[in-house]
């Protein structure tokens, strides 16, 4: 049938991906590498931050989160943002495999939808390094640590909102099956909606409280 | 020539806009209405805030900005986000005229590009009402006023970044002429890059300073 491209596993089926090369690694391998590296990063940050004096458990957990999300943004999303033809990759490059696999849940990645690439580019270039700065800022109790965490989390939420709303407006038909829709498009993005939201609320409260303290001090000084 | 649609003034010329109805109002009228209403809003907020005690001039200017940008987000961008077929509007509806005219600088508006509609939707629904809340928060010196201004300004900058980057990725060929490119696409958006950036920097400093004061107070309390 005309317009149907059988060389790739993505939906919509009429998506044109010339020279597409199927993925080499099974889903389990891709997930295991990501899971194990993330576990390693989180464990390292947890252990190292535990040796520093007076860092609360919640701050140590936040340092783990920022290290994990920062490296994900820089490495995984950074690769995607600047690899215009990852789906043509002929060798089993792990980063290309990740996006060949994830595109089953959202083919806008393989199709290089401009909105998706714009959001991923901002995430990789600005939010990635800023997340690593947050690890440092929390560890050294910088006065800007809350506003920095607030800014990055808000950026993550904004990016996710654009990502989901644009997909909805375009018909929400980019997943190869309901399994990939829920496992990749919904579940894999869930952490980046819940955790940033919790951080935004926490930082909002902390910052408002600090402003109140400063206002009271000013009033007393008069 | 096939694929060329001569019924609309937008670029790319092969953009398909069935039942397009040309604008009725001249550019000067559209700009005059927007300019005068904005002047009225800004003057009103300036005068009213001047009667309240102890609001600094910079805070009064910020209240004017938030009232102006909030109403622009809610009314103009709100209309666009939810009017899927404004370009078919047969009567001289002012809001439809605005977007028929602006589309000469960026035809993604008439074409209802998903990324643009997503950004405009978030701006209208979240940032618009939040901007009006900022007018109130500054006027009543709420402890959350800086973090609120910071959050909205960051959202505006994020939206603008997605807006410009996505256009660049799609070939940056959406303006009917260089005049419309620079007057509408560049100049009309300039305020929403410069002013939010200044507010973000100011709030970052204020919030970091407040956190430092709180930290010192905590250290003393020990």
TrEMBL record, chains A, B:
Q: Which domain of life is it from?
A: Eukaryota
- Name assigned to this protein: Probable 3-beta-hydroxysteroid-Delta(8),Delta(7)-isomerase
- Membrane topology type: Multi-pass membrane protein
Q: Give me the Gene Ontology terms describing cellular component.
A: endoplasmic reticulum; membrane
What residues form the membrane-spanning segments? 30-49, 61-82, 114-139, 146-169, 181-201
Residue ranges of the EXPERA domain?
58-200
Main localisation, per the record? membrane
**Compartments in which it is found:** Membrane
């Amino acid at each position: 049938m005309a317009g149907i491209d059988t060389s790739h596993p993505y939906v919509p089926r009429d998506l044109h991906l010339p020279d597409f090369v199927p993925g080499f690694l099974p889903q389990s391998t891709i997930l295991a590498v990501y899971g194990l590296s993330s576990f390693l990063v989180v464990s390292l940050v947890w252990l190292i931050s535990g040796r520093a004096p007076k860092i609360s458990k919640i701050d140590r957990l936040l340092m783990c989160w920022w290290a994990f999300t920062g490296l994900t943004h820089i490495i995984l999303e950074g690769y995607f943002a600047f690899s215009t033809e990852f789906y043509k990759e002929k060798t089993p490059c792990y980063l290309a495999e990740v996006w060949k696999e994830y595109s089953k849940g959202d083919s806008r990645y393989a199709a290089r939808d401009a909105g998706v690439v714009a959001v991923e580019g901002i995430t990789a270039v600005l939010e990635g390094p800023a997340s690593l700065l947050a690890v440092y800022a929390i560890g050294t109790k910088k006065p800007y640590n809350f506003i920095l965490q607030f800014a990055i989390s808000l950026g993550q939420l904004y990016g996710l909102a654009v990502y989901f709303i644009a997909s909805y407006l375009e018909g929400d038909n980019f997943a190869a099956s309901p399994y990939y829709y829920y496992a990749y498009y919904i579940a894999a993005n869930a952490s980046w909606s819940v955790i940033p939201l919790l951080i935004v609320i926490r930082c909002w409260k902390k910052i408002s409280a600090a402003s109140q303290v400063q206002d009271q001090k000013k009033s007393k000084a008069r």
